[in-house]
Amino acid sequence: MAKQNVAEQFVDILVRAGVRRLYGVVGDSLNPVVDAVRRNSAIDWIHVRHEESAAFAAGAEAQVTGKLAACAGSCGPGNLHLINGLYDAHRSMASVLALASHIPSSEIGLGYFQETHPDRLFAECSHYSELISSPGQMPRLLQTAIQHAVGRSGVSVVSLPGDIAAQPAPEKAAEAALAASRPTVRPGDAEIDELVRMIDEAGRVTLFCGSGTAGAHAEVMEFAGKIKSPVGHALRGKEWIQYDNPYDVGMSGLLGYGAAYEATHECDLLILLGTDFPYNAFLPDDVRIAQVDVRPEVLGRRSRLDLAVWGDVRETLRCLIPRVRQKDDRRFLDRMLKKHADALEGVVKAYTRKVERHVPVHPEYVAAVLDELAADDAVFTVDTGMCNVWAARYVSPNGRRRVIGSFSHGSMANALPMAIGAQFTDRRRQVVSMSGDGGFSMLMGDFLTLVQYDLPVKVVLFNNSSLSMVELEMLVAGLPAHGTTNTNPDFAAVARACGAFGIRVDKPKQLARSLRAAFEYKGPALVDVVTDPNALSIPPKISADMVTGFALSASKMVLNGGVGRMLQMARSNLRNVPRP
Fold first, then answer.
1. Could you give the 3-state DSSP secondary structure of residue 9?
2. Concatenated DSSP letters for 310-356?
3. How far apart are CA 79 and CA 98, in angstroms?
4. Is the distance from CB of 84 to CB of 406 less than 8 angstroms?
5. Which of 210, 221, 246, 382 could be disulfide-bonded to 405 (CB atoms 3.0-4.6 Å)?
């Protein structure tokens, strides 16, 4: 039996760690690894058109599966292209192993062709970034990188010179056990005791939930019911906490809606559950605040805290529920539920009058119809910008759907490559890329990846020929919009030229049947919807400094809100409010 080389041993370790795909673009320094993948039936090489797409795809796969995913780039510019997608994966707490192949080891530090220093370059967007400098070092270093990525939920980068990858591997290395999942973390007794005391003393408690509530929906609902608490959420908490929630008061922040802002500011005690919500301008500074998070480094970095609790949300709530006193006074909760329903009633009317005849098509109408027609277990990948707004306000979570975007890193062009990674995890599951024309055109080359692998991703393109979120930012700053206009082709024709299904929609009455046709098509499909460029969005609560320079006349063209089926849920929750 032929002796393994380092690349083959590297790939074997990835397979043992559960990696089933390696996303990337081939190149000379990467060739030994690509060839090792070719000869290993347990792992596939996924050839994308841009390494940035490879990193986004791996990050999305990790978020959908909860397992380690991997990507790779060749030396110099090849692996440098990974960096934006890796930043996003790292900030999204997605477990990703990135292979940055390197120039020949004898030339490092001598200004060689395509020389960079990937072990330094990726340090800021990873928990671990190291260079393999000898064959004997590889197995332990790779295993250490995997443990960092899985154990700390983020990115690890391994830099491997091509010549070392091709060298004979050392005699069979000891196969160390690899951790497959993170443990649960229970807070200390002193923190639990203090939090119980604070809750019992508070007359009005509000819960504000983030992505750290994943897997804790039942506990959050039981806890909120016991202490009669309104439940608001950040954008990344929406998919985990909004559905089947009789205490829902909406979302706070720049994309917010409903009464979440009021609920967090009018309470006696605000409890932040699993959220690193970045916009401290939307958090109160005159109420008591406790924060619960499994990552101790985020405790207190957004707001002043009266109590920091280190632990996962589910374990913390399981400790609290039997110990806190039942609250019987619902007045605060019921007042916030009514405010929430009233707020949604006020904004929804703007999108129910003549929308089926409005040309260009309201993007809110597109999102509402998409929400109705998409599968109950669909995965939505969402471009940064106005698509974030439409997803936040119109995609209805139900415990089975997933909504993935660049919600912490805020990168353009993320939706299409994320859809690639999400679709590879299950070809039978519906995956919808909610793309803006700016983001889609930036990495449009990877639409060809959908065609090459016959991935049945459905791209719904919100095509307003502009960078509309940037236009809004300029208006808010008192600046005229400039440099935000896109001259676009007929994207549906481009899709058909690539060998996919493509259809263009410029009238509302065409929309539903076009989406149905795309969803019924067995392969990749693109629905190019010409949408109204004047449909912008502003937060539900606006201070003077947020709108400096924003002319009052401009507010007439800014559509404040739009909430889709969330209004139905708010009305339903109101019906459940006990009457005196």
1. helix
2. ES-HHHHHHHHTTTSPPP---HHHHHHHHHHHHHHHHHHGGGTSSTT
3. 9
4. no
5. 382
